[in-house]
Amino acid sequence: xKPRVTVIEPEGPEAWxxxxxxxxEVEFFNPRGPVQPAEIDGILAHSAAxxxxxxxxxxxxxxxAASGLKLIAKCGGAPxxxxxxxxxxxxxxxxxxxxxxxxxxxxxxxxxxIAALRRFDLQLPVIRQGGWxxxxxxxxxDLRGATIGIVGLGAIxxxxxxxxxxxxxxxxxxxxxxxxxxxxxxxxxxxxxxxxMLPRCDAVTLHCRVDEATRGFFDERLFKMMKxxxxxxxxxxxxxxDEPALARALENGPLSAAAVDVFQVxxxxxxxxxxxxGNALLAPHSAGWTGEALRRECRGAVRSVxxxxxxxxxxxxxxxxxxxxxx
Length: 327
Fold this sequence. Notes:
By secondary structure, the protein is α/β, with parallel strands linked by helices. It folds into two domains: 4-98 and 291-325, Rossmann fold, CATH 3.40.50.720; 102-282, NAD(P)-binding Rossmann-like Domain (Rossmann fold, 3-Layer(aba) Sandwich). The protein has helices at 37-45, 60-65, 84-89, 102-118, 120-123, 155-164, 176-181, 194-197, 220-225, 243-252, 291-309, and strands at 4-8, 25-29, 49-52, 71-74, 93-95, 147-151, 170-174, 189-190, 203-206, 231-234, 257-260, 280-282. The chain has a seven-stranded parallel sheet, sandwiched between helices. Strand 3, helix 2 (60-65) and strand 4 (71-74) form a beta-alpha-beta unit. Helix 4 (102-118) crosses helix 6.
Protein backbone atom coordinates (compact mmCIF):
# COMPACT_ATOMS: atom_id res chain seq x y z
CA UNK A 1 0.00 0.00 0.00
CA LYS A 2 1.28 3.45 -0.89
CA PRO A 3 1.89 5.95 1.93
CA ARG A 4 -0.47 8.89 2.11
CA VAL A 5 0.88 12.40 1.45
CA THR A 6 -1.36 15.37 2.24
CA VAL A 7 -0.72 18.73 0.61
CA ILE A 8 -2.11 21.36 2.97
CA GLU A 9 -3.27 24.60 1.37
CA PRO A 10 -1.49 23.97 -1.98
CA GLU A 11 0.19 27.05 -3.47
CA GLY A 12 -0.39 25.93 -7.04
CA PRO A 13 -2.43 23.61 -9.24
CA GLU A 14 -2.57 19.92 -8.40
CA ALA A 15 -0.57 19.20 -11.55
CA TRP A 16 2.50 20.67 -9.83
CA UNK A 17 2.34 17.77 -7.35
CA UNK A 18 1.57 15.04 -9.90
CA UNK A 19 4.95 13.34 -9.48
CA UNK A 20 3.99 12.39 -5.90
CA UNK A 21 1.40 9.94 -7.20
CA UNK A 22 4.27 7.70 -8.33
CA UNK A 23 5.10 6.83 -4.74
CA UNK A 24 2.09 7.92 -2.67
CA GLU A 25 -1.63 8.32 -2.35
CA VAL A 26 -1.97 12.11 -2.57
CA GLU A 27 -4.66 14.19 -0.89
CA PHE A 28 -5.18 17.95 -1.09
CA PHE A 29 -6.60 19.94 1.79
CA ASN A 30 -8.00 23.37 0.89
CA PRO A 31 -9.33 25.08 4.03
CA ARG A 32 -11.98 27.79 3.85
CA GLY A 33 -10.01 29.98 6.26
CA PRO A 34 -6.95 29.67 8.52
CA VAL A 35 -6.04 26.03 9.16
CA GLN A 36 -7.39 24.98 12.57
CA PRO A 37 -5.51 22.73 15.04
CA ALA A 38 -8.27 20.11 14.95
CA GLU A 39 -7.93 19.93 11.17
CA ILE A 40 -4.19 19.37 11.51
CA ASP A 41 -4.86 16.61 14.05
CA GLY A 42 -7.04 14.78 11.55
CA ILE A 43 -4.55 15.15 8.72
CA LEU A 44 -1.55 13.99 10.76
CA ALA A 45 -3.47 10.95 12.01
CA HIS A 46 -3.47 9.39 8.55
CA SER A 47 -0.53 11.00 6.72
CA ALA A 48 2.99 9.66 6.33
CA ALA A 49 4.09 13.03 4.97
CA UNK A 50 2.64 16.51 4.67
CA UNK A 51 3.52 19.39 2.38
CA UNK A 52 2.91 22.71 4.12
CA UNK A 53 3.31 26.46 3.73
CA UNK A 54 4.06 29.12 6.34
CA UNK A 55 0.32 29.23 7.15
CA UNK A 56 0.42 25.79 8.81
CA UNK A 57 1.58 25.41 12.41
CA UNK A 58 2.26 22.00 13.95
CA UNK A 59 2.72 21.89 17.71
CA UNK A 60 5.02 19.63 19.69
CA UNK A 61 2.01 17.77 21.09
CA UNK A 62 0.81 17.11 17.57
CA UNK A 63 4.26 15.91 16.51
CA UNK A 64 4.37 13.52 19.45
CA ALA A 65 0.90 12.16 18.74
CA ALA A 66 1.45 11.67 14.99
CA SER A 67 3.08 8.26 15.26
CA GLY A 68 2.78 7.57 11.53
CA LEU A 69 4.21 10.89 10.36
CA LYS A 70 7.62 10.62 8.69
CA LEU A 71 8.22 13.92 6.87
CA ILE A 72 7.12 17.56 6.86
CA ALA A 73 8.09 19.25 3.59
CA LYS A 74 7.81 23.03 3.83
CA CYS A 75 7.36 25.05 0.64
CA GLY A 76 9.80 27.97 0.80
CA GLY A 77 12.19 28.81 3.63
CA ALA A 78 12.66 27.12 6.98
CA PRO A 79 9.44 26.97 9.06
CA UNK A 80 9.06 29.29 12.03
CA UNK A 81 5.94 27.52 13.32
CA UNK A 82 7.45 24.05 13.87
CA UNK A 83 10.03 23.04 16.48
CA UNK A 84 12.45 21.36 14.08
CA UNK A 85 14.65 19.89 16.82
CA UNK A 86 11.66 18.42 18.62
CA UNK A 87 10.43 16.97 15.33
CA UNK A 88 13.76 15.15 15.04
CA UNK A 89 13.27 13.66 18.52
CA UNK A 90 9.91 12.36 17.26
CA UNK A 91 11.59 10.77 14.25
CA UNK A 92 10.07 13.28 11.83
CA UNK A 93 12.23 14.75 9.08
CA UNK A 94 11.63 18.43 8.23
CA UNK A 95 12.72 19.95 4.95
CA UNK A 96 12.43 23.31 3.22
CA UNK A 97 13.29 24.79 -0.16
CA UNK A 98 16.09 27.30 0.52
CA UNK A 99 16.49 30.02 -2.08
CA UNK A 100 13.20 29.37 -3.86
CA UNK A 101 11.83 32.81 -3.07
CA UNK A 102 14.95 34.69 -1.95
CA UNK A 103 15.20 36.98 -4.96
CA UNK A 104 11.43 37.42 -5.10
CA UNK A 105 11.26 38.66 -1.49
CA UNK A 106 14.32 40.87 -1.92
CA UNK A 107 12.76 42.61 -4.92
CA UNK A 108 9.53 43.17 -3.01
CA UNK A 109 11.41 44.51 0.01
CA UNK A 110 13.19 47.15 -2.06
CA UNK A 111 9.83 48.10 -3.57
CA UNK A 112 8.35 48.57 -0.09
CA UNK A 113 11.32 50.64 1.09
CA ILE A 114 10.85 53.02 -1.83
CA ALA A 115 7.05 53.04 -1.44
CA ALA A 116 7.33 53.89 2.25
CA LEU A 117 9.96 56.59 1.73
CA ARG A 118 7.91 58.18 -1.07
CA ARG A 119 4.51 57.53 0.62
CA PHE A 120 3.28 55.96 -2.58
CA ASP A 121 0.12 54.78 -0.84
CA LEU A 122 -0.97 58.41 -0.35
CA GLN A 123 -0.28 59.33 -3.96
CA LEU A 124 -2.41 56.62 -5.56
CA PRO A 125 -5.89 58.06 -4.78
CA VAL A 126 -5.03 61.75 -5.33
CA ILE A 127 -5.92 62.03 -9.03
CA ARG A 128 -9.23 60.20 -8.63
CA GLN A 129 -10.10 62.53 -5.76
CA GLY A 130 -9.47 65.57 -7.96
CA GLY A 131 -6.29 66.54 -6.14
CA TRP A 132 -2.71 67.32 -7.06
CA UNK A 133 0.65 67.58 -5.38
CA UNK A 134 1.57 70.60 -3.24
CA UNK A 135 4.72 71.74 -1.41
CA UNK A 136 3.29 70.63 1.92
CA UNK A 137 1.79 67.32 0.74
CA UNK A 138 3.21 64.15 -0.86
CA UNK A 139 6.83 65.14 -0.33
CA UNK A 140 8.85 61.96 -0.16
CA UNK A 141 12.45 61.03 0.60
CA ASP A 142 15.07 60.07 -1.98
CA LEU A 143 16.62 56.63 -1.69
CA ARG A 144 19.86 58.02 -3.09
CA GLY A 145 21.84 59.41 -0.18
CA ALA A 146 19.54 57.86 2.41
CA THR A 147 20.88 55.63 5.16
CA ILE A 148 19.28 52.19 5.15
CA GLY A 149 19.66 49.72 8.00
CA ILE A 150 19.50 45.99 7.29
CA VAL A 151 18.87 43.82 10.34
CA GLY A 152 19.99 40.29 9.49
CA LEU A 153 22.31 39.32 6.65
CA GLY A 154 21.11 35.89 5.69
CA ALA A 155 20.26 34.95 2.13
CA ILE A 156 17.41 37.46 1.76
CA UNK A 157 19.15 40.25 3.65
CA UNK A 158 22.20 39.89 1.41
CA UNK A 159 20.09 40.03 -1.74
CA UNK A 160 18.33 43.15 -0.45
CA UNK A 161 21.73 44.70 0.14
CA UNK A 162 22.89 43.77 -3.38
CA UNK A 163 19.82 45.42 -4.89
CA UNK A 164 20.14 48.59 -2.82
CA UNK A 165 23.79 49.24 -3.71
CA UNK A 166 23.09 50.71 -7.19
CA UNK A 167 20.70 53.28 -5.69
CA UNK A 168 23.59 55.08 -4.02
CA UNK A 169 22.35 54.83 -0.45
CA UNK A 170 24.46 54.32 2.66
CA UNK A 171 24.02 50.81 4.03
CA UNK A 172 24.41 49.76 7.65
CA UNK A 173 24.15 46.10 8.63
CA UNK A 174 23.44 44.60 12.02
CA UNK A 175 24.11 40.86 11.96
CA UNK A 176 26.27 39.40 14.73
CA UNK A 177 26.38 36.03 12.96
CA UNK A 178 27.46 37.46 9.60
CA UNK A 179 29.90 39.84 11.31
CA UNK A 180 31.88 36.85 12.55
CA UNK A 181 32.08 35.12 9.17
CA UNK A 182 32.11 37.92 6.56
CA UNK A 183 35.00 40.12 5.57
CA UNK A 184 34.51 43.88 5.49
CA UNK A 185 32.81 45.07 2.32
CA UNK A 186 33.26 48.55 0.87
CA UNK A 187 29.59 48.62 -0.10
CA UNK A 188 28.30 48.66 3.49
CA UNK A 189 29.33 48.95 7.12
CA UNK A 190 28.68 46.54 9.95
CA UNK A 191 27.47 48.00 13.24
CA UNK A 192 27.99 46.32 16.57
CA UNK A 193 24.63 47.17 18.10
CA UNK A 194 21.13 48.25 17.11
CA UNK A 195 21.58 51.19 19.46
CA UNK A 196 24.33 52.38 17.14
CA MET A 197 22.32 51.78 13.96
CA LEU A 198 18.75 52.90 14.58
CA PRO A 199 19.20 56.65 15.23
CA ARG A 200 21.12 57.00 11.95
CA CYS A 201 18.72 55.26 9.54
CA ASP A 202 16.09 56.73 7.24
CA ALA A 203 14.71 53.21 6.74
CA VAL A 204 15.20 49.92 8.57
CA THR A 205 14.37 46.56 7.01
CA LEU A 206 14.10 43.35 9.01
CA HIS A 207 15.53 40.00 7.79
CA CYS A 208 16.01 37.79 10.86
CA ARG A 209 14.94 34.29 11.70
CA VAL A 210 12.58 33.74 14.60
CA ASP A 211 14.20 32.13 17.63
CA GLU A 212 14.17 32.65 21.38
CA ALA A 213 16.47 35.68 21.07
CA THR A 214 14.55 37.43 18.28
CA ARG A 215 10.89 36.64 19.05
CA GLY A 216 9.24 40.02 19.66
CA PHE A 217 12.66 41.67 20.01
CA PHE A 218 11.78 44.73 17.92
CA ASP A 219 9.87 46.46 20.70
CA GLU A 220 8.99 49.83 22.17
CA ARG A 221 12.58 50.47 23.29
CA LEU A 222 14.01 49.94 19.80
CA PHE A 223 11.28 51.89 18.00
CA LYS A 224 11.91 54.88 20.27
CA MET A 225 15.56 54.86 19.14
CA MET A 226 14.70 55.28 15.47
CA LYS A 227 15.31 58.51 13.62
CA UNK A 228 12.35 60.93 13.51
CA UNK A 229 10.56 60.59 10.17
CA UNK A 230 12.13 57.21 9.39
CA UNK A 231 10.32 54.15 8.02
CA UNK A 232 10.25 50.51 9.08
CA UNK A 233 9.85 47.50 6.76
CA UNK A 234 9.15 43.88 7.72
CA UNK A 235 8.97 41.13 5.11
CA UNK A 236 10.55 38.52 7.43
CA UNK A 237 8.23 37.23 10.16
CA UNK A 238 5.49 38.88 12.17
CA UNK A 239 6.72 37.20 15.35
CA UNK A 240 9.83 39.40 15.31
CA UNK A 241 7.86 42.57 16.04
CA ASP A 242 5.82 43.86 18.97
CA GLU A 243 2.85 45.02 16.88
CA PRO A 244 1.27 47.34 19.51
CA ALA A 245 4.66 49.03 19.94
CA LEU A 246 4.95 49.50 16.18
CA ALA A 247 1.45 51.00 16.08
CA ARG A 248 2.37 53.48 18.83
CA ALA A 249 5.56 54.43 16.95
CA LEU A 250 3.44 55.14 13.87
CA GLU A 251 0.79 57.12 15.74
CA ASN A 252 3.04 59.09 18.09
CA GLY A 253 6.42 59.01 16.33
CA PRO A 254 9.20 58.67 15.56
CA LEU A 255 8.11 56.69 12.47
CA SER A 256 6.57 58.42 9.47
CA ALA A 257 5.51 55.14 7.87
CA ALA A 258 5.89 51.37 8.00
CA ALA A 259 5.48 48.68 5.35
CA VAL A 260 4.42 45.35 6.84
CA ASP A 261 3.91 42.12 4.89
CA VAL A 262 3.85 39.67 7.81
CA PHE A 263 1.85 39.54 11.04
CA GLN A 264 1.82 37.66 14.33
CA VAL A 265 -1.59 36.23 13.41
CA UNK A 266 -2.36 35.81 9.72
CA UNK A 267 -4.60 37.11 8.36
CA UNK A 268 -4.51 39.92 10.96
CA UNK A 269 -7.62 40.08 13.11
CA UNK A 270 -9.88 43.13 13.45
CA UNK A 271 -8.27 44.10 16.75
CA UNK A 272 -4.75 44.34 15.32
CA UNK A 273 -3.61 47.90 16.16
CA UNK A 274 -1.79 48.29 12.84
CA UNK A 275 -5.13 48.31 11.01
CA UNK A 276 -5.97 51.70 12.51
CA UNK A 277 -2.69 53.30 11.40
CA GLY A 278 -3.16 55.33 8.24
CA ASN A 279 0.61 55.48 7.70
CA ALA A 280 0.99 51.69 7.69
CA LEU A 281 1.31 50.06 4.27
CA LEU A 282 -0.11 46.59 4.94
CA ALA A 283 0.30 43.69 2.50
CA PRO A 284 -1.14 40.13 2.72
CA HIS A 285 2.14 38.18 3.12
CA SER A 286 2.78 38.54 -0.60
CA ALA A 287 6.52 39.29 -0.77
CA GLY A 288 7.20 35.82 -2.16
CA TRP A 289 3.91 35.58 -4.05
CA THR A 290 4.84 35.23 -7.72
CA GLY A 291 4.07 32.35 -10.04
CA GLU A 292 7.76 31.70 -10.57
CA ALA A 293 8.55 31.56 -6.85
CA LEU A 294 5.56 29.38 -5.96
CA ARG A 295 6.44 26.89 -8.65
CA ARG A 296 10.03 26.66 -7.38
CA GLU A 297 8.75 26.15 -3.83
CA CYS A 298 6.30 23.41 -4.79
CA ARG A 299 8.80 21.60 -6.99
CA GLY A 300 11.34 21.66 -4.18
CA ALA A 301 8.87 20.23 -1.67
CA VAL A 302 7.90 17.47 -4.12
CA ARG A 303 11.56 16.57 -4.61
CA SER A 304 12.02 16.28 -0.85
CA VAL A 305 9.05 13.91 -0.48
CA UNK A 306 10.16 11.76 -3.40
CA UNK A 307 13.70 11.56 -2.02
CA UNK A 308 12.50 10.48 1.42
CA UNK A 309 10.39 7.60 0.17
CA UNK A 310 13.03 6.54 -2.34
CA UNK A 311 15.61 6.46 0.49
CA UNK A 312 17.70 9.16 -1.18
CA UNK A 313 19.33 12.26 0.27
CA UNK A 314 16.57 14.72 1.14
CA UNK A 315 17.09 18.16 -0.43
CA UNK A 316 16.74 20.96 2.12
CA UNK A 317 16.74 18.63 5.14
CA UNK A 318 16.84 20.68 8.36
CA UNK A 319 17.25 17.97 11.01
CA UNK A 320 19.51 15.11 10.01
CA UNK A 321 19.35 13.70 13.53
CA UNK A 322 15.75 12.53 12.93
CA UNK A 323 17.21 9.26 11.61
CA UNK A 324 18.25 8.24 15.15
CA UNK A 325 14.69 8.50 16.45
CA UNK A 326 12.63 6.78 13.79
CA UNK A 327 9.38 5.37 15.13
